[in-house]
Design goal:
single chain; alpha+beta; Alpha-Beta Plaits; Aminopeptidase; 2 domains; five-stranded antiparallel β-sheet; three-stranded antiparallel β-sheet; 30% helix
């Protein structure tokens, strides 16, 4: 019997975007959440092995990277002409999400990518609804990002880097690849410094929800990442 997954209306979220507490991270729960503009995000950072309650967010405004508004700094274009890195898709998903969890970040003592989150997104990947961007220097994974893909909707969940400009090259490559596949925007949830450098910005939640309504949710991942 198919479960009935119920989330509160996103309009009931508090000022921080918190819309629900509890529930699980099962496959169908995550798909329903993303279709409604909701995503899981622990309310703080924790040691990697900590057990934490599930909290669900739909912030207003919402971070978004609109590909027609892509801005590429001249210094980065110069770097790309002699980059030592190569980029693949979906070749190292588990390594990418583990590195996103373990790579230290400035002013962030722990991680929101808990073992439960990690397992849930690995399951999403194995079932065709997550992707990774893998950045290599030789045979060494030096940067990457991962996200959710449901039909024509894609999110960027987290990224890591061990080398200057490596994660930027991953995001830049992803944007151009998605444009070639007819995708015109990426849900970034928040606007990080890297996203802002490429022209990302915040949009009202209602604007974001209208974009969700226009998505083709049935498009297979294989048509975007063969």
């Amino acid at each position: 019997m198919r479960r009935r997954i119920v989330f509160p209306p996103v309009e009931t979220a508090n000022d921080d975007g918190l819309v629900a507490v509890g529930g699980d991270l099962e496959f169908d729960t995550l798909l329903e959440a993303y279709r409604r503009g909701i995503f899981p995000w622990p309310i703080s950072t924790y040691p990697l092995n900590a057990a934490v309650p599930h909290t669900w967010f739909s912030p207003d405004p919402r971070g978004l990277l609109d590909f027609p508004n892509l801005h590429v700094p001249r210094s980065f274009l110069k770097f790309l002409r002699n980059t030592p890195y190569r980029v693949t898709f979906n070749q190292a998903f588990e390594d990418v999400i583990r590195q996103c969890a373990r790579t230290p970040r400035r002013d962030q003592p722990g991680t929101w990518i808990t073992p439960d989150i990690m397992g849930a997104y690995i399951n999403l990947f194995q079932r065709g609804h997550a992707y990774s961007v893998d950045v290599w220097e030789g045979d060494h994974l030096v940067a990457g990002l991962y996200g959710v893909v449901i039909g024509e909707f894609l999110s960027g969940e987290s990224m890591f880097t061990h080398q200057d400009n490596a994660s930027k090259q991953g995001l830049y490559t992803l944007v151009h690849h998605l444009e070639e596949k007819g995708i015109t925007w990426l849900d970034t949830q928040m606007v990080t410094e890297v996203v802002r450098q490429f022209g990302g910005d915040y949009v009202p939640r209602q604007n974001f929800l209208k974009r969700l309504d226009a998505c083709d949710w049935k498009r297979p991942r294989a048509t975007i990442f063969p």
